[in-house]
Amino acid sequence: MTKYLIHGGRPLHGTIHISGAKNAAVAIIPAALLVDGVCRIENVPQISDVTLILQILRELGADVRLVNRTTVEVDCSHIRNRQVPYELARKIRASYYLVGALLSRFGWAEVPLPGGCDLGGRPVDQHIKGFVSMGADVEVRNGLIDARVPNGARLSGGQVYLDIVSVGATMNIMLAATLANGMTIIENAAKEPHIVDLANFLNSMGADIRGAGTDVIKIHGVARLRGGSYSIIPDQIEAGTYMAAVAAAGGDVLIRNVIPKHLECITAKLVEMGAEVEEEGDSLIVRRHGPLQRTNIKTMFYPGFPTDMHPQIAAVLCLARGTSVITEGVWDNRYRYTEEFRRLGARIQVDGKIAIIEGVEKLTGAPMEACDLRAGAAMIIAGLAAQGTSEISNVKHIERGYEDIIGKLSGIGADIRAVEVPDPEQKAAPAAG
Ligand code: EPZ
């Protein structure tokens, strides 16, 4: 079992390079299912969610070739299987994109209900509403989403108003509509940068999608997509996580390969809290030398403050002067990190969807258990800012979404390393037989 060991209390200095966006990659890779020919995808992050989604495509019969560390070529011309294996699909949220992609290309998909971080209820009713509006019959049975177009026909364009702004539903309906007959209109669509990235990927392969990044997206179905080359955008949340790490631990770091526009809301909050953020082309310089100040944050859809930065910013606020309030506007159950933070001496209370954080002078290192991806990243930030040693277990959650987090943080002066330790639960298990 791997744990991360952190000796905290050191400011961070140096340069860090941001990888390709996880939540774009896990949609763009399944989108290759729509393409007749080879898709060359560049700036792919090396994270376990990407490994899983590539493995699923291989199981379906795709030809997947790793060209170099960050480039992959996917050829889905000879897909032989449309049933996604349960063992793989249940490990990752983004497996739901296979429904939209397979349905669009073949008119039929059978995909196990997705897994991913436990953030409370994660329904897929809006995805299904979209597929049904395009003429599919969709049934959820035996843990599967079974979606098919009657009589083996293609989907037809439809009009769908999302009852709730959903990133996943917006992208999934966009995938399904790409090869449908006629025009699909998605109203009340999500506007996250990865939605625009998916639309750009599909358009570069011959799709006709307009309005991505606004709340109305129009997809004019095309007969086929052809192969091509595309580079994924930098990861907004990975960049925000390192910005928060510098704010919490102090120091001075150049963060390279970012789109500053995508980080505006995070920058604005960190500046309010006492950090300095300077833009230099596709880089940001983040500094924090003085004291941290309190603020209030409400997470919401893009361009609002991202829910995927909630736990990381909470780690910073634990050390800010005064009382801060974080209101979670997207997920029901994002507060499981708070119990772990209390072990470090944080003063944090949760009331429904609100966390009240009373800043303390210092945190002291302690063992913590990562309970989901962003909570795990936040525990690293808290450990870096705390005095003494912290130990983080269950790091598989963190490795789902952060490429080489140990190497990147060590490169800016953090004292963090991965250690292999025996799994206490296995030790305690009675001998077989
Ligand atoms: C995506 O999840 C991201 N995951 C999440 O990132 C992120 O937290 C979330 O968007 C919000 O930005 C991926 O892109 C793989 P939603 P998704 O559909 O698509 C409700 C991370 O750490 N809803 O936008 O599953 C839902 O319950 C992760 O990288 C419905 O009610 O999120 C939630 O309250 C974790 N019905 C809200 O909408 C539906 O059919 C937003 O969910 C769909 C969603």
Write structural notes for this entry.
The chain is α+β, with helices and mostly antiparallel strands. 31% of the residues lie in helices and 28% in strands. The protein has 15 helices and 23 strands. Helix 10 links the parallel strand 17 and strand 18 (323-327). The radius of gyration is 22 Å and the shape is globular. The site of ligand EPZ has 26 residues, from helix 1, helix 5, helix 6 and helix 12.
Secondary structure elements and pairings:
Elements: E1 2-8, E2 12-17, H1 22-31, E3 35-42, H2 48-60, E4 63-68, E5 71-75, H3 86-89, H4 97-106, E6 108-112, H5 125-133, E7 137-141, E8 144-148, E9 159-161, H6 167-178, E10 183-187, H7 193-204, E11 208-210, E12 216-220, E13 225-231, H8 236-249, E14 251-256, H9 264-272, E15 276-280, E16 283-288, E17 296-298, H10 310-317, E18 323-327, H11 337-342, E19 347-351, E20 354-358, E21 367-369, H12 373-385, E22 388-393, H13 396-399, H14 405-410, E23 415-420, H15 424-428
Parallel strand pairs: 2-14, 3-13, 9-10, 17-18, 21-22
Antiparallel strand pairs: 1-22, 1-23, 3-5, 4-5, 6-8, 7-8, 10-12, 11-12, 14-16, 15-16, 18-20, 19-20
Helix pairs in contact: 1-2, 1-7, 4-6, 5-6, 6-7, 8-10, 8-12, 10-12
Ligand EPZ binds at residues 22-23, 26, 93-94, 117, 121-127, 164, 166-169, 190, 307-308, 330-331, 373-374, 401.
Mean pLDDT score: 94
Structural class call reads alpha+beta
Bound molecules: ligand EPZ
Question: Sheet bearing the most strands, described?
Answer: 4 strands, mixed
What is the number of E strands?
Answer: 23
Which regions are unreliable across 5 or more consecutive residues at pLDDT < 50?
A: 429-433
